[in-house]
Amino acid sequence: MTSSVAAGSAARPEPGAEPPLRRNRDFLLLWAGAGFAVLGARITAIAYPLLILWHTGSITGAGLVSTAALLPMLLVQLPAGLLVDRWDRRRLMIVADAGCVLVTATVAVAVWAGAVWVWHLVAVAFVQSSLAIVHQLAERSAVRHLVTPGQLPTALSQNEARQRGAMLLGRPAGGALFELVRWAPFLATTLAHLVSLVSLLLIRRPFQSTAPAGVPGAARTLRADLVEGIGWVWRRRFLRTVMIFIAISNIPFEGLALAVMYVVKQDGGSSTVVGLLAGVSGVGGLLGALGGTWWLRRLDLRAVVVGGLAGWALVMPAMAFTRDVWALGVLFAAMSYIGGVFNVAGGIYLVRITPDALMGRVGAVATLLGSGTNFLGPLLAGYLLAALPVATAVLALSGVMVVLVAVALVSPAVRSVVDTPEGRRLS
Fold this sequence. Notes:
Layout (H helix, E strand, L loop, with lengths): L3 H6 L15 H32 L2 H12 L1 H4 L1 H10 L2 H24 L5 H25 L9 H29 L3 H19 L19 H13 L2 H30 L4 H20 L1 H5 L4 H15 L9 H29 L5 H13 L4 H12 L2 H21 L1 H5 L11
C-alpha cells in the first residue's frame, strides 16, 4: 500500500513547481471559505446553549442541546467518511454549506418570531453538526491536492491555526451577537456558510486524484469500503490507542466548557462574558497551532502524547478552586494550547501515513475514535452540576485525566512507537 505522500503527489508537480501558499489561489479559497464555515459553527456552538440557558434557566436543557451538536461525531463520522471517498468532495462540501444555510436560517426566524422550542434547536444542532462533519472531512482530504508535498505540513498547520482562530473570533462574536439581539448569531452563521459556498464555486482544481468510487459502475460495496477503512486504522496500534485516549479526555473537556458557562450564569455574568472567556481559550489554541511544528521538531510522538495528557491533568483540577472568570479563561487557554499542538501532530501524522483513496474513511474512523464520546461531556456535566457543588463536579470530571496519564506512561503501544519510522519527530 502506497504512502500518503506518494499517493497524493503522483499527479502533481514536484515541490517548488507551484507558487508559495500565499499565492496559491485555490488553496487560499478553500482555506478562507472553510474558515467562514468553521466560524459559523463556532458562533452557533455557543449560541445554542446560551439561548436555552438564558431563555429557560435550565442547565439540563442547555446540556441536551450541546449533546445534540456533538452526537454526530459518534453517529455520522463513518457514513460521512464513506461519502468523502466515494463521491466528488467539492460537490459534497457545496451541498453541506447549502444545507447549513437552510437549517440555521430556520433558527434565526424562530428566535426572531419568539417561537423558541428546545426540540427544534436539538434537531437543527444535530443536522448542522452532521453537515459540518462532511464538510470538514472533505476539506481535510482535499488539501493535499491543492499544495505540493513539501507544503503539506505548513498547509495543515495553517488549517489548524484557522480552526483555532475561528474559535478565538467565533465564540466571543456569538456571545456578543446574542447579547445584542438573540437571533443575530444564527443569521451570522447563515451568511458565513453562504461565503463558504461561493468560495467553493470559484475553485478550479479537483479535490481527489482519481474519479471518486461513487460514480456509476463502481463495483465495491459500502460495507467493503467501511470494513477496509476501519481495518486500516485498527491495525495501527499506536493510532487507535491515542485516539481512545483523546476520546476519554474529551469528555471532561466538553463538560468543563459547560461548567464555566454555568458559573458565569450563577455569578450574574452576561453571555458576552461567556464569549470572551471562550475567546481567551481560543488564543491559547491558536498559539498551540502556530507553535505545533516547533514542538514536533523537538519531541517524538511518545513525548507529545504523554506530555500533553500530563499538562491537561495539571490544569483541569485547578478550575475547581477559582470562580474568577479571567483565571478560568487562562486555564482554558492553557488546555487549548495543548489541544492545538495535539491537533497539528495528529493531522500531519494521519495525512503522512494514509493513502489518498482511504483519506475520507481513515479520517472518519480516527475522528470517531477520538471525538465520538464528546456528546457525553455536556450530558454528564449537566447532571453533575445539577446534583453537586460546582467544585466537586469539576474535580470529578478532571480526575479522569490523572488516570489517563498513568495509563499512557505504561502503554506498550505508546512506549514502542519511538522505535518505528513514524514515531520519530514529524518535522
